[in-house]
Specification:
- With about 170 residues, this protein is α+β, with helices and mostly antiparallel strands.
- Helices cover about 30% and strands about 15% of the residues.
- The protein contains 6 helices and 6 strands.
- The longest helix is centred in the middle third of the chain and has 10 residues, at about 70-80.
- The relative contact order is 0.09.
- The model has no long low-confidence stretch (mean pLDDT about 85).
């Protein structure tokens, strides 16, 4: 005689479900997702209220697998996403789960979008106007540490500017 399967009730949709796992919380990926999002108007961001990645993207586990909330939001609305595709935000809010604010793109589009919108964290405190000044100060003998203090950035950031690892497009 086999042991009966555990019976659970989903806290989101209140439907009963059976599961082999001893501690399932949700009956479906959709319920796990919607339990942490409160939709508002279509033109507003729908912030993720669950745990977040260090960069602000919502994330959660379901059946032992880690999911990013914005990818799940897109899939629930529009269907499957090819593995090479990224889900990008029109709103620049990483915790937003409103599918109307999301669109698909490749990694190079994501990087281009990041640069266009000045979201590169390495370059965030500096502006394009600062770069020629930094390079001129350095060529006139001002120490890198002094330049870093003047612009309120790390020494390593000034070193990256001067070696053209960052801000390559500005002479």
């Amino acid at each position: 005689m086999s042991k009966p399967k555990p019976f659970f009730v989903c806290p989101h949709c209140k439907r009963p479900f059976f599961c082999k796992s001893y501690h399932p919380k949700w009956c479906s990926l959709a319920c796990a997702f919607w339990s942490r999002v409160t939709p508002t108007k279509n033109d507003e961001c729908w912030p993720w209220t669950g745990s977040k990645h260090v960069f602000g993207y919502g994330e959660f586990k379901f059946n032992g697998k880690l999911y990013r909330s914005h990818r799940v939001a897109y899939e629930l609305k529009f269907g499957n996403i090819l593995p090479q595709m990224k889900v990008l935000h029109h709103c620049d809010n990483p915790s937003c789960c409103n599918p109307e604010h999301l669109y698909l793109g490749l990694q190079d589009q994501n990087m281009s979008d990041m640069a266009t919108r000045n979201r590169n964290t390495k370059n965030r405190k500096l502006t394009p106007d600062d770069i020629p000044i930094i390079r001129e100060l350095s060529s006139s003998g001002v120490p890198k540490l002094q330049i870093a203090k003047k612009f309120h950035v790390a020494f390593s950031q000034i070193a990256s500017v001067l070696s053209h690892r960052t801000w390559k497009h500005i002479p």
